[in-house]
Design brief:
With 75 residues, the protein is of the alpha+beta class. It is built from two helices and five strands. Helices cover 27% and strands 36% of the residues. Strands 1-2-5 form a three-stranded antiparallel beta sheet. The protein has a two-stranded antiparallel ribbon with strand order 3-4.
């Protein structure tokens, strides 16, 4: 199982997109540098630019998860 995760991680580190048909796709997104706030002290903090993994589920999974639920009806 770790072999699969290692391969996904390697592909993402190269900037590749990883798609698992019927499940979803992993990509890398770039976040810009920004000024954040320390929640404990309220002090402004410079947060550097970084790359973050992003997952988008397939339409098939979204449809199965939402099957049988109606608008406005929360579980």
């Amino acid at each position: 199982m770790t072999t699969i995760f290692d391969e996904i991680t390697s592909a993402l580190s190269r900037g590749d997109r990883v798609e698992l048909r019927g499940f979803g796709a992993f990509t890398v997104r770039q976040r810009r540098a920004r000024i954040g706030r320390n929640p404990r002290s309220g002090e402004s903090v410079q947060v550097g630019a970084k790359k973050v993994p992003y997952f988008r589920s397939s339409k098939k999974i979204r449809d199965r998860l939402n099957a049988g639920t109606s608008d406005g009806d929360e579980a």
